[in-house]
Specification:
The protein is α/β, with parallel strands linked by helices. It is 39% helix and 19% strand.
């Protein structure tokens, strides 16, 4: 089973031993960030630093000035890793160590974009803006994300790409110093809190046959018991219909599903047009279409007709893996099981061999390991041992 690890360019740039160390784990592929969101990351083995603070979402290569000239929405450049092209420098070192490099592109997730261009953000039923969540229904946002996907994915020497957050973002997001756990919200209430009511989405709901003002009021009314009673545990599509009513629930799901599908189609088409023949395009995905976040909700048949496959979150119990892998069983395409291998972040590198075998029994044909740059020495030793036994 082909295994790959995620890396940031700053894990490699300035560390002459990094590429060989990664190759020594027994992986064949590195998925290397070329466009990424803000983060604070440890670099536990780097010879010169221990913490990198990526202050905002940025590209880790020099963007094409001709592509972005005169455009209000354009990618931000990074300043926290030395050099003009840290992605390119890291990719070259990794390839020289015999590793196949794929780009890692984060799309609909940028707090700086929302802060500097508030009209790009998702607006919930209460009028609150989510600056980290660009509304993918807005034409300017969609055009920006599609062009970003093409440029950030098809980097020189890359064999493929993995597109993260290629769909809706919403409420369920770890923001800086999050203080949102006081009221327990099931995924149905999370969905209602993620519905966008910007002008474009209001028009879209109208196209689906519901009045946007009535819908907004219905969302607030449905959530009132959660705020007064301490939570709303409903989940699934049935839970959404229970909270919102079948007609309004169906209208929101239809509108958001249509938008997500068109964005995914356009982004993948743009990448293919910019990339050489044989370039692999995978989406980080969740098989529940209404889900939001890094693993965008998709319809399995649709996404496998558009992209070459999916990367699916498989850390956790057997039930977690079954829920995300079974909807893709027998449908073809790459099905990469993504496992956390950083113990301190909830990963389980010491059960990787067993968990990977379980994923394979459910149809997974590749592994992704998050995250080789963040993991401790003992975690990486456990990964290497597991991969040596998996073959």
């Amino acid at each position: 089973m082909k295994a790959g690890v995620f890396l940031y360019p700053w894990d490699v740039v300035g560390d002459p031993d990094a590429a060989a160390r990664i190759a020594g784990l027994g992986v064949r592929q590195v998925t290397l960030a070329s466009a990424y969101h803000s983060t604070r990351a440890l670099t536990p083995r780097h010879p010169a630093r221990r913490v990198v603070t990526a202050e905002h979402a940025a590209v880790l290569y020099p963007p094409d000035p001709d592509r972005w000239a005169g455009r209000a929405l354009a990618p931000y450049r990074q300043s926290w890793t030395p050099g003009d092209d840290p992605y390119g420098e890291a990719a070259e070192a990794l390839a020289a160590a015999g590793l196949e490099v794929h780009s890692w592109v984060v799309l609909a997730h940028s707090s700086r974009l929302g802060a500097e261009h508030p009209d790009t953000s998702v607006v919930n039923a209460y009028g609150d803006r989510y600056p980290w969540a660009p509304c993918i229904a807005r034409p300017a946002v969609r055009d920006y994300l599609v062009d970003l996907a093409a440029e950030a994915a098809a980097r020189p020497g890359a064999h493929g790409t993995e597109l993260e957050s290629c769909g809706w973002y919403g409420f369920a997001h770890l923001h800086a110093h999050d203080k949102v756990a006081g009221v327990g919200l099931g995924d149905a209430a999370q969905y209602l809190m993620s519905l966008c009511f910007c002008a474009v989405c209001r028009e879209g709901y109208g196209e689906e046959g519901v009045d946007p003002e009535a819908l907004s009021a219905a969302v607030r009314r449905a959530l009132e018991s959660a705020w007064s009673g301490g939570g709303s545990p409903e989940s699934g599509r049935g839970g959404i219909a229970k909270l919102l009513g079948p007609e309004q629930a169906d209208a929101t799901l239809a509108w958001r599903g249509r938008v997500a599908r068109t964005v995914q189609e356009a982004a993948v088409a743009a990448v293919r047009a910019a990339a050489p023949p044989g370039f692999q395009v995978l989406l980080h995905a969740d098989p529940v279409p209404y889900r939001t976040g890094a693993n965008a909700g998709v319809e399995p048949d649709h996404v496998l007709a558009v992209a070459d496959g999916v990367v699916l979150p498989c850390t956790g119990s057997d039930a977690v893996r079954e829920a995300v892998l079974r909807p893709f069983a027998g449908r073809g395409g790459v099905r990469a099981a993504n496992f956390g291998v950083v113990s301190g972040m909830g990963g389980s590198p010491r059960t990787l061999e067993r968990d990977a075998a379980h994923a394979a029994s459910l149809g997974a044909d590749q592994l992704r390991l998050y995250h080789a740059g963040l993991a401790s020495g003992p975690d990486l030793e456990a990964v290497a041992a597991a991969l040596s036994r998996l073959g």
